[in-house]
Amino acid sequence: MSGILFHKYGGEDLDSYYPIRPECQADVPKAGKTLSARRWHAAFSEDGHLDIAKVLRRIQRGGIHPSIKGLVWEFLLGCYDPNSTFEERNQIRQQRRQQYAAWKTECQNIVPIIGSGKFITAAIVTDDGQSLQDSNRDSLDQGWHVDGAISDKKVLQWMLGLHQIGLDVVRTDRSLVFYESETNQAKLWDVLAIYSWVDNDIGYVQGMNDICSPMIVLLENEADAFWCFEHTMRRLRENFRTNTGMIGVQSQLSTLSQIIRTIDPKLHQHLEDLDGGEYLFAFRMLMVLFRREFSFVDALYLWELMWAMEYNPNIFSLYESNSSTSDGRQVNDKQLKQCGKFERKNVKTGLPDKTSALSVFLVASVLETKNKKLLREAKGLDDVVKILADITGNLDAKKACNEALKIQKKYLSKSKK
């Protein structure tokens, strides 16, 4: 491993916020001028209204100081309306905590190990609903007992996935000291288990652990971490849909293909000739938002840059109304100033929402940076995968986002013609 360097935030080492095990430490680039705790608190009016436009400008310049990341993310992800008071937000927070507690109790009544500070990594039921507690020490330790087979389809489907969540939790962000604690691992398992109970249509899919993990690290209250994750999944949920006969990110891959075909027809044709025209090699990047291509710290920095650039002031009301239409994204002139850079351009041009996410243009920017190498050296799909694998740990998050904005501009310009 290379020398021990960390992001610097106002003279502080990031290691004090996200301790990394010594053998996993590596160089990471500096984040630049961040949204500091002082600037964050100064952006609120006396009763709690947030000047979101000012906050977004700062985040887009250099990210968010670790001490306030979780709090700021709650706004970026639409958990709260910046045009609300401290009191109104506190009421929403308490209601959500109560709702989470109710769901957790439901789950505990079925599998008591939930909320115990422990978790399971072995199956607890068979596919036909027979209990396996005799072979699972974890469930025995909890005094868990099931009489007869489980006949409720939702309960069985949920219970069948719990051990897979446990197996993935063990593998999640192992470089962090935070997850050396079984209690913290169990917290991640609890949130993912309860989410899969609530969203039984999608359930749990591998990769959700990578999305949820930062929320567990950043937000001390488990219920708050759950809601932050739940709101993130509202953006990414379709990425994890596996029961439709086609992968959930298919529409985004289709958009990616369209973007490259438009801005770089030569590269697109080359990829088509290699049977890569469906862009399946970009599947992982889009599914888990570049978590595998960036270190933990840089992935967080990338996410908040993206969410700030994609921010729409109507996101809270859109989620509260459970609307999936693009009408909720329409803004007036004042609200347009409260949009992130990327979203502002989308709103002006009426570009559809989910398939044209910034992450798609981000993948396009990665392909463009590797354009010459791909054209010169890629003789098959394995070569494409290998060339793109070289970006791991070598991508500058801010530069990549700015390149994505340039590609968006180029794509919109060429599309009009």
TrEMBL record:
InterPro entries: Rab-GAP-TBC_dom, Rab-GAP_TBC_sf
Gene3D superfamilies from the UniProt entry: putative rabgap domain of human tbc1 domain family member 14 like domains, Ypt/Rab-GAP domain of gyp1p, domain 3
Signal peptide (residue range): none
Domain Rab-GAP TBC: 63-310
Name the record gives this protein: Rab-GAP TBC domain-containing protein
Phylogenetic lineage: Eukaryota, Viridiplantae, Streptophyta, Embryophyta, Tracheophyta
